[in-house]
Amino acid sequence: MTDSSLIDRGVIACQEEVATKVFGRGTEAMESTANTVTNAPKELSRSQRRRRDDIVQAALKVFERDGYEAAKMADVANEAEVAKGTLYLYFETKAALLEGVIQTVILPALEQIGAAAKTHTGSAQALLESQVRIMAARQASPEMKMLIRLMISAPEQHRPIIQFFHEHVVQEGLDLIRSTLKSGAESGEFRPEAADMDPLVFVGAHVYAAVWHNLFEDEGPLDIEKLVNDNLALVMGGLLMRL
Question: Which domains does the chain have, with CATH numbers?
């Protein structure tokens, strides 16, 4: 182990000890003074990244089990098996922790789609269908269901989270689809008007699925794969150029 690694671990350990003393006075004290503690450095070590990921996964479990509103930061710390002060070193507030869940669990799917688009050499249709299916699979995940339920249940109360989600998840996803539509139109594979098509046409099934999962799931399961495939077949039928 290098001297710098030892120093880094020593600094973090010292910060955690101080934070635990500062924030060990209960939930109200932690919330009121959370902004006095500096978040973990942007360039995290491997062990710090693992710890941050552990905290995010623990938060996801607690949010799903107790609901976001009822969840306590102390419960997340217990689930992650870290001190309360350690938790606040990485996430100053519960809202910041929820953003961490979005960044860690949701955004990688969009990064996967974006990376695939850059190296794709096949048809625009194949790329577009792949993008839509990846988004649909992520939409059906338990963590996405939890996030959608949270945002729908109290939109005014969670406006910052909704704005963050819209900017980093919704808009980025729509931009990826919009780019593929434009490429397909320019190559002649799609009709010229595809370049100006609203990408929401392709995610309407996702939105309906989110509503179904949160309101009507007890009435029966929804075959989201069939729903997405049927929607793709319908839209593609009018999108592709016919020779």
Answer: 3-92 (1.10.10.60), 95-239 (1.10.357)
110 to 32, 38, 172: CA distances (angstroms): 35, 29, 7
- What's the rounded mean pLDDT across residues 227-238? 90
Helical segments of 34-141, H only: 46-66, 73-80, 84-90, 94-101, 107-119, 124-139
Q: What type of residue is 221? A: P
Give pLDDT tens digits for 20-35: 443 443 433 333 333 3
Joined together, the tokens standing for residue 243 give: 């020779």
How far, in Å, CA of 232 to CA of 205, rounded? 9
d(CA 213, CA 220): 10
Given a contact cutoff of 8 angstroms between Cβ atoms, the answer to whether 22 and 33 are in contact is: yes
Residues 6+ apart with CB under 8 A from 137: 109
**Exposed/middle/buried for 194, CB within 10 Å: 0-12, 13-18, 19+?**
buried
